[in-house]
Amino acid sequence: MASSALICDTEQWKALQAHVGAIQKTHLRDLMADADRCKAMTAEFEGIFLDYSRQQATRETIEKLLKLAEAAKLKEKIEKMFKGEKINSTENRSVLHVALRAPRDAVINSDGVNVVPEVWSVKDKIKQFSETFRSGSWVGATGKALTNVVSVGIGGSFLGPLFVHTALQTDPEAAECAKGRQLRFLANVDPVDVARSIKDLDPETTLVVVVSKTFTTAETMLNARTLKEWIISSLGPQAVSKHMIAVSTNLKLVKEFGIDPNNAFAFWDWVGGRYSVCSAVGVLPLSLQYGFPIVQKFLEGASSIDNHFHSSSFDKNIPVLLGLLSVWNVSFLGYPARAILPYSQALEKLAPHIQQLSMESNGKGVSIDGVQLPFETGEIDFGEPGTNGQHSFYQLIHQQPVYLKGETVSNHDELMSNFFAQPDALAYGKTPEQLHSEKVPEHLIPHKTFKGNRPSLSLLLPQLSAYEIGQLLSIYEHRIAVQGFIWGINSFDQWGVELGKSLASQVRKQLHGSRMEGKPVEGFNHSTSSLLARYLAVQPS
Ligand code: F6P
């Protein structure tokens, strides 16, 4: 396939389109009756078990998807990513989050330079800093040890670390290491969130970590200034060097903000914001809370999946299979949304993280060469931990004609009955015949009839410690990349988000002009102008 050709023009894509009819004629009930099929539609790595037998797919579908992967040059694209080629072509950048968790002796080049030593030099600095901090040797302006950390950042500088922090609740070793400490996150500029983030905290014992790849994001900088003020008003200006540190690729702006450059932790433009949890973005705050050794286990887990993804054959490769099945569901079966349903409360922030990771990566309408795509990419991701979700949106999943793909992740024994029941409820549904035989009153039959045939897949983890959390993260990161590689889009830029940012900056300028100089708000359409006028009238300052 020529590099600028679209995947939908290949014979492999058309073969899958032609295959849809046969699949849609077959109910999952019938597919599930074939034990050999069910046995074949599984994959396992280091105790992580993927069961995709409840997908509307046969072994023939998988073979066709594997041929599509060949047509899309998936192997070559993965190789280019691991080799540090500039596959994020619209930003002229390598995509090397795998280097963040690679072992010390690995060699991964970007622009001809091995980045691994740089990565480890920042990790060594974090290890040392976190040890000093946690031992109590790092003292604040009044000589007290610091036990509370507020991490200020948004988007990729927030969601990944929050996911890992929340998930670590089930790791007993991590819980032990975190005793007597608090890690909080501040993302929203809503004053309510600012107040929540510092509620009951004393600046004397609090460290603020400002996390921003660019160090220009309006929300983060405003929140950082607010917390700087909070520290200064209580402890004086000299306290900033002891109570504020930063993570950024823009160390010049960190210095200008007033943070001591010695207390700044770098990362690099080849780490995308939403792929940055394994850089200092996540490693620093998490090491302050749990100690570096726990975080290193998380990184090792992610690295184990990187190796699996890089070296396993595609028919046994968990991220590749997941990516191909996503393409099948979105582009061929027409499912617009995916529910992520972790049967573990500790994974409550998995869905919010994946929302950004997946939708910011693959919500693209043009190919990597800028050609408008005639097929759907990306799906809407949403989710809640089971069993909470069951009491919320599962009704729609079971009965609404808008199809959803369920996805369950669990590691928690007490939830297993629901974890096992739901995929079958989705697949089998309930027929009017069954309801009649149960003597259900006639008027209730339509309400209790479920067509079933709702595809899902189950990912079973042996446990949820730091290592498996890293594995889970890496599985999702690579699954998303596989989808993008097949569709031929750039999963690593986010121009849509940038558009919103620049429009917000125009509004900000106008609001400022109106408040400070009494200038009229101008340059917007009628609707926006009148909304702004109302806002200015009710919120005068
Ligand atoms: O949400 C858009 C985005 O650009 C993300 O990609 C990024 O993670 C986030 O904003 C925050 O950006 P920064 O880390 O530069 O503050």
Automatic annotation (TrEMBL):
<comment type="similarity">
    <text>Belongs to the GPI family.</text>
</comment>
<dbReference type="InterPro" id="IPR023096">
    <property type="entry name" value="G6P_Isomerase_C"/>
</dbReference>
<keyword id="KW-0312">Gluconeogenesis</keyword>
<comment type="subunit">
    <text>Homodimer.</text>
</comment>
<dbReference type="InterPro" id="IPR035482">
    <property type="entry name" value="SIS_PGI_2"/>
</dbReference>
<dbReference type="GO" id="GO:0048029">
    <property type="term" value="F:monosaccharide binding"/>
</dbReference>
<dbReference type="InterPro" id="IPR001672">
    <property type="entry name" value="G6P_Isomerase"/>
</dbReference>
<dbReference type="Pfam" id="PF00342">
    <property type="entry name" value="PGI"/>
</dbReference>
<protein>
    <recommendedName>
        <fullName>Glucose-6-phosphate isomerase</fullName>
        <ecNumber>5.3.1.9</ecNumber>
    </recommendedName>
</protein>
<comment type="pathway">
    <text>Carbohydrate degradation; glycolysis; D-glyceraldehyde 3-phosphate and glycerone phosphate from D-glucose: step 2/4.</text>
</comment>
<keyword id="KW-0963">Cytoplasm</keyword>
<dbReference type="InterPro" id="IPR035476">
    <property type="entry name" value="SIS_PGI_1"/>
</dbReference>
<keyword id="KW-0324">Glycolysis</keyword>
<dbReference type="GO" id="GO:0006094">
    <property type="term" value="P:gluconeogenesis"/>
</dbReference>
<dbReference type="GO" id="GO:0006096">
    <property type="term" value="P:glycolytic process"/>
</dbReference>
<dbReference type="GO" id="GO:0005829">
    <property type="term" value="C:cytosol"/>
</dbReference>
<dbReference type="InterPro" id="IPR046348">
    <property type="entry name" value="SIS_dom_sf"/>
</dbReference>
<dbReference type="GO" id="GO:0004347">
    <property type="term" value="F:glucose-6-phosphate isomerase activity"/>
</dbReference>
<dbReference type="InterPro" id="IPR018189">
    <property type="entry name" value="Phosphoglucose_isomerase_CS"/>
</dbReference>
<dbReference type="GO" id="GO:0097367">
    <property type="term" value="F:carbohydrate derivative binding"/>
</dbReference>
<dbReference type="GO" id="GO:0051156">
    <property type="term" value="P:glucose 6-phosphate metabolic process"/>
</dbReference>
<keyword id="KW-0413">Isomerase</keyword>
